[in-house]
């Protein structure tokens, strides 16, 4: 039953993404529909929506920078457009992504943003090339921008304690914020304790139903990014915070359709990802002004703590839901370096002189 309810929430999100997808498809060339149908079984609705947004930027770039396309509606572009594109056109597009203006708003992309948008373009060209609708895939000739690895931002041990204390007592909140804090304190403590104590994603957190929590097993059922369910276990601190919140939650009257949601907003609806992001920002800004703390940074904080405690990168990957352990290893390379340095004095070659 819990699995069905978790899948129901996930299904609702897929429906919303599909509806947005249809809106974007109406602004793209007709042949893009074939591409998205072709990748439907191998990608999530959220991934396809991201690709659609990125491809729209590419076709808008063509419309603005190719004189022969200036007065041609993007929706009427034929496959001949893709056949006419050369390596230099793709390189110019990547350069364009550094800075462009749309509807009076300025957009910029760093290496990561460029790489993501080029990946979306590569996916479409590869699909049509493998479908033998294109004779060549020019995007394969343009390498992805080299990413400069950014330091992983996370809270240290002292800051974790300060953050939870701030959530609990609201000592540094404004008068207006304190009025909300009185109503949400127990919920906020439970939510941040859960994020910090399990490393689950914010999307997994807001998707939790009451039936997904099992105190006897000390586990929660989460719907992972790849579309599968997994059990994530929690400790005593998380258990205590959740039990206090659920006791309070029993007195709430959820709005229709939100009866099963674990975490409710003030309006008694399932809390949203944006709301969790805002409350993390609100509390974390009182703890540190040097670090931009988001729910994902709380996930990194948990992963760091778990790796330092166990030294088991495979365990960290499994708990965080990483399909590829190399993804985990990349994030925690700095800690790995510290562990290797500590090995220098771990082996004693001679007995100390008495």
Summarize the model shown.
With 354 residues, the chain is mainly alpha-helical.
What does this structure look like?
It is a single chain. This protein has 354 residues and is mainly alpha-helical. It folds into 2 domains: 2-141, DNA polymerase, domain 1 (Orthogonal Bundle); 157-339, hpI Integrase, Chain A (Orthogonal Bundle). The protein has 15 helices and 5 strands. A 3-stranded antiparallel beta sheet has the order 3-4-5. Helix 1 packs parallel to helix 3 (45-65), helix 8 crosses helix 10 (236-249) and helix 13 (313-320) packs across helix 14. The longest helix has 24 residues, at 2-25. It starts with a helix and ends in a 12-residue tail after the last helix. The mean pLDDT is 89.
Topology, pairings included?
Layout: H1 2-25, H2 31-38, H3 45-65, H4 80-84, H5 87-96, E1 99-102, E2 105-108, H6 111-130, H7 157-169, H8 175-198, H9 202-206, E3 213-214, E4 219-223, E5 229-233, H10 236-249, H11 273-284, H12 295-310, H13 313-320, H14 325-331, H15 333-342
Helix pairs in contact: 1-3, 3-6, 7-8, 8-10, 8-12, 12-13, 13-14
Distance between termini? 68 Å
SSE arrangement, N to C:
HHHHHEEHHHHEEEHHHHHH
- Biggest pleated sheet: 3 strands, antiparallel
Question: How many structural domains can be distinguished in the coordinates?
Answer: 2
Round the Cα radius of gyration to an integer and report it: 24 Å
Total number of β-strand segments? 5
Number of helices: 15
How much beta, percentage-wise?
Answer: 5-15%
Strand order in the sheet with the most strands: 3-4-5
In CATH terms, what is the fold-level topology of the largest domain? Answer: hpI Integrase, Chain A
**What is the CATH homologous superfamily assignment of the largest domain?**
Intergrase catalytic core
Helix content class = 55-70%
């Amino acid at each position: 039953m819990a699995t069905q309810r978790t899948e129901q929430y996930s299904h609702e999100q897929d429906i919303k993404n599909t509806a947005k997808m249809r809106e974007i498809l109406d602004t793209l060339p007709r042949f893009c529909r074939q591409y998205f149908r072709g990748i439907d079984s191998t990608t999530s609705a959220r991934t396809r929506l991201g690709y659609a947004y990125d491809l729209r930027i590419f076709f808008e770039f063509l419309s603005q920078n190719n004189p022969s396309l200036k007065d041609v509606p993007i929706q009427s572009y034929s496959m001949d457009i893709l056949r006419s594109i050369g390596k230099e056109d793709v390189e110019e597009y990547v350069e364009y992504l550094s800075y462009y203006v749309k509807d009076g708003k300025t957009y910029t992309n760093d290496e990561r943003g460029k790489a993501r948008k080029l990946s979306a373009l590569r996916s479409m060209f590869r699909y049509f090339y493998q479908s033998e609708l294109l004779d060549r895939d020019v995007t394969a000739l343009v390498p992805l921008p080299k990413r400069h690895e950014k330091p992983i931002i996370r809270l240290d041990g002292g800051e974790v304690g300060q953050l939870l204390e701030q959530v609990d007592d609201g000592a540094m909140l404004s008068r207006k914020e304190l009025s909300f804090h009185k109503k949400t304190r127990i919920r906020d403590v439970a939510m941040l304790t859960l994020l910090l104590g399990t490393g689950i994603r914010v999307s997994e957190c807001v998707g939790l139903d009451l039936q997904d929590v099992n105190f006897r097993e000390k586990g929660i059922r989460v719907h992972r990014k790849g579309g599968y369910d997994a059990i994530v276990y929690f400790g005593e601190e998380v258990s205590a915070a959740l039990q206090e919140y659920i006791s309070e939650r029993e007195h709430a009257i959820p709005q229709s359709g939100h009866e099963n949601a674990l975490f409710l907003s003030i309006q008694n609806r399932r809390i949203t990802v944006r709301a969790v992001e805002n409350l993390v920002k609100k509390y974390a800004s009182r703890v540190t002004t040097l670090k931009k703390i988001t729910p994902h940074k709380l996930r990194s904080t948990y992963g760091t703590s778990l790796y330092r405690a166990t030294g088991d990168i495979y365990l960290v990957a499994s708990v965080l839901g990483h399909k590829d352990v190399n993804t985990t290893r990349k994030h925690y390379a700095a800690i790995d370096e510290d562990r290797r340095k500590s090995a220098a004095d771990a082996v004693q070659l001679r007995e100390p002189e008495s």
